[in-house]
Design goal:
alpha/beta, 40% helix, 7 strands
């Protein structure tokens, strides 16, 4: 099943790689954001089925974006290059992708979060 996905990532090259991986999996990236205000707006308004959130957006945590998505019932995962140590409750209950993201891990994370 093809999903409409929001990618929140402040590194342009990582965002493009994520888009390529998602396209290879048959999904469509319908929205991208690199900064917290933009991500919050898209999380609240975009027609999406799923989201991938970089934990650190240019020094700002993406946890408020997670809150908006959760309120809308949109499944999402976090992506981080720093490991899960900096992600406390209640966000630590979300699936966490470790950068660099591999396509098989991404696919498993999407399936697991979408069926949770």
């Amino acid at each position: 099943m093809s999903l409409r996905i929001l990618v929140v990532e402040d590194e342009a090259m990582v965002a493009l790689l994520m888009e390529d991986l998602l396209t290879d999996l048959g999904h469509e990236v319908t929205a991208m954001a690199a900064r917290l205000p933009e991500a919050l707006a898209m999380a609240g308004e975009a027609q999406i089925d799923f989201a991938i959130l970089d934990v650190n957006l240019a020094g700002s945590a993406s946890f408020p974006v997670s809150d908006v998505l959760a309120a809308r019932g949109v499944p999402h995962v976090f992506a981080t290059g720093y490991g899960s140590a900096g992600i406390g409750p209640p966000y630590s209950e979300r699936i966490i992708l470790h950068k660099p993201v591999r396509i098989a891990e991404l696919n498993r994370a999407i399936q697991a979060a979408s069926t949770a």
